C-alpha cells in the first residue's frame, strides 16, 4: 500500500536536480519533520546523502545500487530502501519513480 | 512578495507533463480547495485549461501569451496572470519558473 498524501506545509519552490531529471518539493510536517515528495524521470543518476535517508516508492519504480554494493535491486510501489548518511546510491529509472524521501 | 509554503495535504505522486518539462504536486487545502505547486524547466509549451486558472510565480520567471493575443508578457516572483476556462496559453521559460496554480 502506498501513502497517497502527506499533510504539512509544502515549500512552493521546487528542488530541481540533474537538470530536471529529479524534481521534488519539501514538506514540513506539523511536528517539524521534513520530508520531500518527488519524481525521478528516465535516467541513471548518483545521489549523495548527508543525513541517512529512506526512499519510499509511491508510484512507478526504480532499480538502485547502494555504495559498496554490486547488486542492483528493484523498488516498487509501497517498498522502501535505506541509505546510510554520508554515503551515496545509484538509481536508474525506466519510466518514472515517484517517491517520498524520509530524512534522519 | 512570494508565498513560501502552502499548508494542506500534498499528493505524494507528481503530475508530469511534456516529458518532465513541467512537474507539479497537487495540494488540497483544509477547506477542500485544490492547488498545485510546480516548476517549468527551460521550454516553450502550450497548456490548455479546463477550469480558469491563475498562475502565481514564486521563483524564477517566464514569458506567457494568452490565446488570441500576440503579446508575450513577463511574469516574475510575486506576479500572477489569469487564464480563462477552456482556453490555452503559451509559456516560455529560459531557466526555471516556479509556480502555484490556483484553479476556478
UniProtKB/TrEMBL annotation, chains A, B:
The enzyme's E.C. designation: 2.4.2.1, 2.4.2.2
Sorted UniProt keywords: Glycosyltransferase, Transferase
GO MF, any single term: purine-nucleoside phosphorylase activity
Glycosyltransferase keyword on record: yes
Taxonomic superkingdom: Bacteria
Annotated SUPFAM superfamilies: RmlC-like cupins
Catalyzed chemical reaction(s): xanthosine + phosphate = alpha-D-ribose 1-phosphate + xanthine; cytidine + phosphate = cytosine + alpha-D-ribose 1-phosphate; uridine + phosphate = alpha-D-ribose 1-phosphate + uracil; guanosine + phosphate = alpha-D-ribose 1-phosphate + guanine
Keyword Zinc: no
CDD domains, sorted: cupin_PpnP-like
Free-text function comment from the UniProt entry: Catalyzes the phosphorolysis of diverse nucleosides, yielding D-ribose 1-phosphate and the respective free bases. Can use uridine, adenosine, guanosine, cytidine, thymidine, inosine and xanthosine as substrates. Also catalyzes the reverse reactions.
UniProt xrefs under PANTHER family: PYRIMIDINE/PURINE NUCLEOSIDE PHOSPHORYLASE (PTHR36540), PYRIMIDINE_PURINE NUCLEOSIDE PHOSPHORYLASE (PTHR36540:SF1)
Family: Belongs to the nucleoside phosphorylase PpnP family.
Protein name stated in the entry: Pyrimidine/purine nucleoside phosphorylase
Amino acid at each position: 500500500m502506498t501513502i497517497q498524501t502527506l499533510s504539512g506545509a509544502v515549500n512552493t519552490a521546487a528542488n530541481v536536480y540533474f537538470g530536471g531529471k529529479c524534481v521534488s518539493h519539501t514538506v514540513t510536517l506539523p511536528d517539524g519533520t521534513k520530508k520531500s515528495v518527488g519524481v525521478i524521470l528516465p535516467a541513471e543518476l548518483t545521489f549523495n546523502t548527508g543525513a541517512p535517508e529512506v526512499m519510499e516508492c509511491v508510484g512507478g519504480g526504480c532499480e538502485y545500487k547502494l555504495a559498496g554494493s554490486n547488486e542492483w535491486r528493484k523498488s516498487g510501489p509501497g517498498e522502501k530502501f535505506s541509505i546510510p548518511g554520508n554515503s551515496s546510491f545509484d538509481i536508474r529509472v525506466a519510466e518514472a519513480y515517484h517517491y517520498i524521501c524520509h530524512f534522519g
